[in-house]
Amino acid sequence: MAVKTLLIINGPNLSMLGMREPEIYGKETLDDLQNYCRAEAKKLGYLAETFQSNSEGEIVTRLNRAMRGNYSGIIINPAAFTHYSYAIYDALLMLSVPKVEVHLSNIYNREQFRSHSVTAGACDRQIYGRGFAGYSDAMEYIDHLLKEREKGK
Ligand code: DQA
């Protein structure tokens, strides 16, 4: 059986984790987050493919490539694009695999503009305010959805 892979996308400025507002995002780096994701995915029997970009177009292209069906699920932290990218919304919408939007911080108790997500509407769930743990929660939810879908066949 083909190995099940999760695509984990992190958007702009998440490359600066560890240095960026550590009181909000913590002291750990993007590398730490990606290693965490790989380890958590492994526990559930998945491979995690990680991708970070500061460019909306690169994220759209990566999602478009996911249309080839290489992934069992997608976890995306679109970062600031969350709040205004209809291009990422559209790219997510056309993918039928389970998709979860994750935010490290609680976007609902910060500046007003962060309370609105354009991209969450194209995802099966949104998780926020759990730090790194939000990504493993997302993996568990994707695993649950895949098992439900398998039962429904
Ligand atoms: C974020 C929240 C966004 O509002 C912000 O623009 C980010 C990170 C989070 O993970 O909490 O860059 O997505």
What do you see in this structure?
The chain is built from 5 helices and 5 strands; from the N terminus they run βααβαβαββα. It has 153 residues and is α/β, with parallel strands linked by helices. It has one domain: Rossmann fold (3-Layer(aba) Sandwich). It has a 5-stranded parallel β-sheet with strand order 2-1-3-4-5, with helices on one face. The mean pLDDT is 97. 1,3,4-trihydroxy-5-OXO-cyclohexanecarboxylic acid (DQA) is lined by residues 13, 77, 79-80, 82, 103-105, 107, 114.
Helix/strand-derived category reads: alpha/beta
When the domains are counted, the total is 1
Q: Please report which band the strand proportion falls in: under 5%, 5-15%, 15-25%, 25-35%, 35-45% or over 45%.
A: 15-25%
End-to-end Cα distance, whole Å, is 18 Å
Biggest sheet: strands, sense, closure?
5 strands, parallel
List the helices and strands in order.
EHHEHEHEEH
Hetero compounds: 1,3,4-trihydroxy-5-OXO-cyclohexanecarboxylic acid
| Average of pLDDT | 97
CATH top level label: Alpha Beta
- How many alpha or pi helices? 5
- Low-confidence sequence ranges: none
CATH architecture title: 3-Layer(aba) Sandwich
Return Rg in Å: 15 Å
Number of strands: 5
Lateral arrangement of strands in the main beta sheet: 2-1-3-4-5
Backbone shape: globular
CATH fold description: Rossmann fold
* CATH H-level homologous superfamily name: Dehydroquinase, class II
Q: What fraction, in percent, of the residue positions are helical?
A: 25-40%
